[in-house]
Amino acid sequence: MNGVNHSVVSEFVLLGLSDSWEIQLLLFCFSCIFYVSSMIGNLLIVLTVTSDPYLHSPMYFLLANLSVIDLIFCSIAAPKMIYDLFRKKKVISFGGCIAQIFFSHAVGGTEMALLIAMAFDRYVAICKPLHYLTLMSPRMCILILVVAWTIGLIHSLAQLAFVVNLSFCGPNVLDSFYCDLPRLIKLACTDTDELEFMVTANSGLISLGAVFLLILSYIFILATPQKHSSGASSKALSTLSAHIIVVVLFFGALIFFYLWPSPSIHLDKFLAIFHAVLTPFLNPVIYTLRNREVKMAMRRVFCQLMNFRKNY
User: Fold this and answer.
1) What does the alpha-carbon distance between residue 106 and residue 306 come to, in Å, rounded to a whole number?
2) Does pTM surpass 0.90?
3) How many helices (H) and strands (E) would you count in the chain?
4) I need a surface site. Which of 59, 88, 224, 290 has the fewest CB within 10 A?
5) For 133-173, what is each residue's pLDDT tens digit?
6) Which residue has the higher pLDDT, 241 or 61?
7) Is the pLDDT assigned to residue 253 strictly greater than 80?
8) Cα separation, 286 vs 309, whole angstroms
9) 177: which DSSP letter?
10) Residue 131 DSSP one-character state
11) DSSP class of 276
12) What's the CA gap between 33 and 70, in Å, rounded?
């Protein structure tokens, strides 16, 4: 490199998921179905919460914003993955690779902060119901949203700060279907052991810390009603179950990606597909199937749309 710190790689070759035509066809059908379902499901939640006055509360405000985040998240890697499935040469430009990393970490960091905020919302609603409307005022909800996006952007910029000065002179092959930071760093033309540790600390340990914080909040939430009655504890557990499932799905894959020492390539790719395509689909399913108010609101919205169509 003659001491010059610049990249000579203009694009990266993605090996994709499989060379088998049958597996590619299966993955194409699977990805298309769940990507379209994710888009429709999350759009439906956003439309329902914004249009139904019965859902204009802090909990559903946060839920609608979680759906907005999932809409962005499932569109970062899935469309290109679907497009590349039957292409012989799967490539992504250097700028496109950096953009994927930036948006995935920005949206992921924002979702992480928003899930913590949703746990705080349930804590206030269950443990301090008389102060709920005061503590979770509209102004507080907007502040939570601004803080969540700020945390996501700072986290993403901090990750990219590790990469921006790296030199990439070849090879340029990524054994994946999208650009992820750990694999990209390994392609740099320099010793990256310390850099890999910093990335692990930034993403993996932050994810562990967030999970620990969420678990503590759930313990406090469940313990408080238990002091009063078993029925209140059962209701709290029912309310929190959807949140707990979403947290496990979201953080489970993240912790595996960044803290597992030597993951199997096949398992790594399976979890990457799960995280990129299936998780954004499961979030609206989990929240709607376990929430009677949302299901009733969706029926009202659907009836309004049908009546509107009949009138015109």
Assistant:
1) 38
2) no
3) 13, 3
4) 88
5) 899 999 999 999 999 999 999 988 988 887 777 888 878 88
6) 61
7) no
8) 29
9) S
10) G
11) I
12) 16
